[in-house]
Amino acid sequence: MTAVSGRFGPYGGAYVPETVMPALDQLIEAMEEAAADAGFQAQLQTLLHDYAGRPTPMTLAPRLAAACGGAQIWLKREDLLHTGAHKINNALGQVLLAERMGKRRIIAETGAGQHGVATATACARAGLQCTVYMGREDMRRQALNVYRMKLLGTTVVPVDSGAGTLKDATNEAIRDWVSNVRDTHYVIGSSVGPHPYPSLVRSLQRVIGDETRAECLSRLHRLPHSVVACVGGGSNAIGMFAAFLEDREVRLVGVEAAGHGLDSGEHAAPLTRGRPGVLHGSHSYLMQDEHGQVLTAHSISAGLDYPGVGPEHSALRDSGRVGYVCASDEQAVRAFHRLCRLEGIIPALESSHALHAAEQIASELPAGATVVVCLSGRGDKDIGTVRAHDGDNDDAAG
Amino acid sequence: MPPGERLRAALEVTREGGLPALIPYVTAGFPHLGDTVGVLRAAEEAGCAAAEIGIPFSDPLADGPTIQRAGWQALHNGMTATLAVEQAAAARAAGLTLPLVLMTYINPVLSRGLDRFCAEAAAAGVDGLIVPDLPDDEADDAHAATAAHGLALIPLVAPTTPDERIDRACRRASGFVYCVSVTGTTGARQSIDAEAFELLERVRTHSPLPRAMGFGLARHEHMLALRGRCEAAVVGSALIDAISGQPEDGAGAAAAFLRGMLHAA
Questions:
Q1: Beta bridge partner(s), residue B177
Q2: Residues in domain Tryptophan synthase beta chain-like PALP (chain A) (predicted)?
Q3: Partners of B213 in the beta sheet?
Q4: Cα–Cα distance between A241 and A269 in angstroms, integer?
Q5: Does residue B265 fall inside a structural domain?
């Protein structure tokens, strides 16, 4: 699916103040030129290889699979990248584009802090000035990442509006962009926002899916039965799925956060329980009330704590090409513990949602089948959250 | 009457001292849910030429802190897009003749249904819509729906807007052209930048419609600075600040502030 017009079926578009529309046009032009520029592509490939640590391995998880009693489970190890999550793929690419456009100031929003850290890292490397907007509540939940960004020379601006989470940080980042658009590039961290961001982020993240598909073919000599990824805004998922969309036999599963449960109202599952609307510049499924006011999301994982979702996911939901399911806070934490104990890998709470669904899927498949799950990030940042959740009980791991 | 004709006519009237026409922005349901009609009547009595009724939204991307806070208060008070339209109708029933424009982000409109919202707004006596997150590129459906119900869809242009985009937006504009004075969000400012005056001159070459300058205007001196440069001026955040300072008499505060915008102290 392409978005030449900025649309994925009825979704997408560019619903932003007129002030930034010329900057979006400039970005479209820069993207097109960069895509055709072998020098730029080589520069990006070198960065991804030498600096970020690509390609990432695929790791077989035999003890986890045995516990599920079914298919093989493979982990695509985005957690092993520099800065600890897939976000660096996008940040490095967008900062290169910003340099190409002659923009010396970078802004970003962040929820869990992974995108903020990735952008701060890319800016430190490139010698660009960086400001990251982060909700006050997220700064509390992810204090270590806040300090990490400061170490990297980035200014972190607390956002007090709303619930003080990712939605509010994104509002403030867009307002900054509206005010400083001439010299500033806004590095959006997910496959959301106005056209061309959903397409740009997908193109920078599809390396996840391309590597996974190639490795399945070279090592397993076939495509996987199922590919599973968590969906907040949806960047790791769209990057993973992009390579498999034409492989109709591969089942694609996106996992939203059910928070305290879909019926509690405290969740982050717009594709499951929302209806289409406009937030942050694009038309997509959205958690909103009957009057069109956007609702506050909830998830134990700050990176999924967002009431909207990338527009391509909305189109993939409607077409049925991707199935979207949910995992609750509780289910994600249990999956987190299982991967720690059974495989010696501490996953991000975001990725733990995907792990829960992958376990369910694997348990229903025969032993010969293969399930690949995108381990989008490492869980070091979440240890405090899990510890608080478990009441610091040493016996909590399941 | 073609869409926006009442608005256009109201803004083109030549005024005493050559001042631009004054358009206040009033957050519906602020500071109290039932204050909207009183503040609109105060605006009419103070000599304003038209009024914008702001429908609060949870995520107002184009607004600075003052209008954000007023919007949150209004949402907390229970304001909705539907109720704002009902209050516009109530203002008409109370005898208000001022042309009225609804300023709303697109999502509450889509949530109600674009056509249904436009039908209800027109029936309430509203003259037009301003949608700050609906650039011309996304406005085809909204142009069709507003035109079908006799409403103007007022475009916004900004200092960063290149001439070809100004031309495209102006070609299907009605009522007036909203010229954003700053590269930024709403909020009272000290002075008017040169880029604002330059924008007004650029817009003149693309449209015969009245030009309303907005964002940042806060004082009578700003009105004086705009003499001969545009036909209308919008004041929002500074008005809300005035109302916030006297929340138990929002209408009185609005009347005093708006008179101060129009007349030297």
A1: B211
A2: 52-377
A3: B179, B233
A4: 19
A5: no
Top CATH class, A8-49+87-197: alpha beta
| A20·B160 Cβ contact <8 A | yes
Residue B143 within any structural domain of the chain = yes
Domain boundaries, chain A: 8-49+87-197, 54-84+205-389
pLDDT (tens, 9 = 90+) of chain B, 265 residues, equals 788 999 999 999 988 789 999 999 999 999 999 999 999 999 999 999 999 999 999 999 999 999 999 999 999 999 999 999 999 999 999 999 999 999 999 999 999 999 999 999 999 999 999 999 999 999 999 999 999 999 999 999 999 999 999 999 999 999 999 999 999 999 999 999 999 999 999 999 999 999 999 999 999 999 999 999 999 999 999 999 999 999 999 999 999 999 999 998 7
Structural domain span for residue B199 = 5-259
SS3 label, residue A182 = coil
Cis status of the peptide bond prior to B31, with omega within 30 of 0: yes
* CATH code, domain with B13: 3.20.20.70
CATH architecture of A54-84+205-389: 3-Layer(aba) Sandwich (3.40)
10 Å Cβ neighbour count for B171? 11
CB pairs under 8 A between A and B: 117
Contacts for B194 with CB less than 8 Å, ≥ 6 apart: none
Residue B264 lies in a domain: no
Q: Say if B211 falls within a structural domain.
A: yes
Q: How far apart are CA A185 and CA A168, in angstroms?
A: 19
- What residues in A contact B135, CB-CB < 8 Å? 14-18, 21
Dig out the tokens for A300 from the structure.
Answer: 């134990």
ipTM given for this complex: 0.97
B107–A277 C-beta distance less than 8 A = yes
Question: Tell me, what's the pLDDT at A1?
Answer: 37
Question: Which residues are paired to A226 by β-bridges?
Answer: A251, A371
Nearest in space to B57 (alpha carbons), one of B39, B36, B81: B81
Residue with tokens 């982990």: A75
Number of domains in chain B: 1
CA B124/CA B147 separation, integer angstroms: 16
CA distance B258 to B235: 9
Active site residue A109: yes
Beta bridge partners of B26: B53
Given the residues A299, A352, A376, A381, the one annotated as active site: A376
